[in-house]
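Researcher: Next sequence.
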Amino acid sequence: MPRRFDGYCCQGRNFKHSKGRGLIDASYSTVSAAQTALNQANGILNEIGETAYVKTSFGMQIPFMPVIYKMADKGTLMLDASVSVVALGRVVSDEIKIVGTDLQTDTSFTAKTATDVKVGLGYSQSVWENSNGMLVAGAKANVH
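Model: Next structure:
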């Protein structure tokens, strides 16, 4: 059963009906008036479905990380862990239909998320020193 599209997201300058209400919220007295609004609303909805999306990402270190351990042979061992999350949401547009004198659609919103946990183990050691400083070499392997 089609749900009535609330039209509240369609209150921008091009989405208003001449009577000040949204295209979808308005009631039409004739089929031709509803058809005109239908054509305009389908154009707007198709453009939103093709171009509009919301994307957000978040990342953080695991508490008390990295853990660094200085070894007796002057090397340093490091354990590191972090987590990141990405979320993407977009409109899945569907055709708007005339039902009596109302406009209805099955347009929906979909969201996708992804999570990544990264654990890294590294080792470094001083390879050259003089009075001006030192050169440190090391490697780190990450597992996702």
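Model: The first strand starts at residue 53 and ends at 61. Residues 1-19 have pLDDT under 50 and may be disordered.
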